[in-house]
C-alpha cells in the first residue's frame, strides 16, 4: 500500500494486491500486482495532484521487486489518470464490463420465452441451488473453481480458507448449483452499497451440457441479487471486447448492458510493453 500524507494527516492511499502464481502444468512462476480503482482520498484532498505520486511510488516499488506485471482495473472514469499512466509506461487496453439493471425490470422480464421455458424445465429435472456454508460444500465449490480456472492463467483462485471466511460475512454469498447432489455450478457474489458483484463463477458445461449449468448458474446469481434488493449485478470480468467473445455474448443474453473501460498494464520485460503499445495503438 502507498500512503500520501500532508501535515501528518493521511490524504490518500492506494492498495495493490500481490498474487504469487505458480504451476507445474502449465509451467509458470511469477508475481502479478492488481489494483482495483484509483485509491481512496480525503474529502478535501487534491486527488489530481496526489494520484500521480501514489501511482509512481507503487510502480517503482513493484518494479524493484521484479513484479512480472501490474494491472489497474475498475477505474471510476475511463480517462482518469491517462497522462500519468502513459508517462510511466502503462498500456491502456479496452476491457469489457457488463452490468444488469435490476431496479427497472425483474430479471425474468429481460429473458426470452425460450430461456424461461428452459430454466423451468431444468428445475423440474431436479436442479437446485443452496448457499455453501458447510466445510464440505465450500470444499466442493472450491474444487470446482480450481478445475474451471486451471488453464486460465490470468484468473487467480484464493485458497479454501478465503471462501470459508467469505461465508461468514453478511456481504458475501457462495452459492452452489447441484444435480443429484453433484455440484455442477457455483458462484461468489459480493454485495456493497446497493449493488451486487459477481466475483467468481464456474460450471461444468461440457460434462452436463444437457442440464445447461452455465445458464442456471448465472440465472441464480441474477435472481439472488434481485432478492437482496441490489440495484445492479456487475460482472467483474467479461474479457476483451472482441467480436468473438463467447462469454460476453452469453452474459448479454440475460439482458445486460456492455460498458468498455480501460485496464492499464505494465510488464517488467520492456519488450512486452513495446509489443502491447504496437498492438493497442490509440
Automatic annotation (TrEMBL):
The keyword Transcription does not apply. Keywords: Acyltransferase, Transferase. GO terms for molecular function: acyltransferase activity. InterPro entries: Acyl_CoA_acyltransferase (IPR016181), BioF2-like_GNAT_dom (IPR038740). SUPFAM superfamilies: Acyl-CoA N-acyltransferases (Nat). The keyword Acyltransferase applies. It holds the Pfam family Acetyltransf_6. Residues 126-239 form the BioF2-like acetyltransferase domain. It comes from the Bacteria. Its EC number is 2.3.1.-. This is GNAT family N-acetyltransferase. The lineage of its organism: Bacteria, Pseudomonadati, Bacteroidota, Bacteroidia, Bacteroidales.
